[in-house]
Amino acid sequence: MKAFECKQCGECCRGEGGIRVQGDEIGRIARFLSITPAEFLSERCYFRHGRYYINTGADGFCAFFDKEKQCTIHPVKPLPCTLWPFYPALLNDPENWIMAQDACPGINPGSSFEEFRRQSRG
């Protein structure tokens, strides 16, 4: 069994903290949605600390998450979504990795931290 295998539960799509969008991602997502980059930023994002983040809905999920369809921008999803759960904070700190296991059912609690790190290089 892998150290991580996505269960498509959507847990990684929920919570405040924000999915940052930047650079080419903004244009790619806007084109995918058939809107301008300015419309995408003003209607689907918020600006905080000099950066843009995708809005969350009242349910706490990413504005682009649908419980039946999952990620509605999957083909153009931003880098943080592409990387999950192989973030530097989890790859470099076993305690963060252990905490992530509680939040993500796709992280195999039977695997070791080293197995997780190996899979990320995979």
Q: How is this fold's topology laid out?
A:
Layout: E1 20-21, H1 24-33, H2 37-44, E2 45-48, E3 51-54, E4 65-66, E5 70-71, H3 79-83, H4 88-91, H5 94-103, H6 113-121
Antiparallel strand pairs: 1-3, 2-3, 4-5
Helix pairs in contact: 1-2
Mean pLDDT: 93
Instruction: Give start-end ranges of low-pLDDT stretches.
Output: none
Quote the distance from N terminus to C terminus: 14 Å
Biggest sheet statistics: 3 strands, antiparallel
Helix content: 25-40%
Order of helices and strands: EHHEEEEHHHH
Give the total of beta strands.
Answer: 5
Account of the protein in words:
A hairpin with a 2-residue loop joins strand 2 and strand 3 (51-54). The protein has one domain (11-121). With 122 residues, it is an alpha+beta fold. The two termini are 14 Å apart. It has helices at 24-33, 37-44, 79-83, 88-91, 94-103, 113-121; strands at 20-21, 45-48, 51-54, 65-66, 70-71. The protein has a 3-stranded antiparallel β-sheet. Strands 4-5 form a two-stranded antiparallel ribbon. Helix 1 packs across helix 2. It is elongated and about 45 Å long.
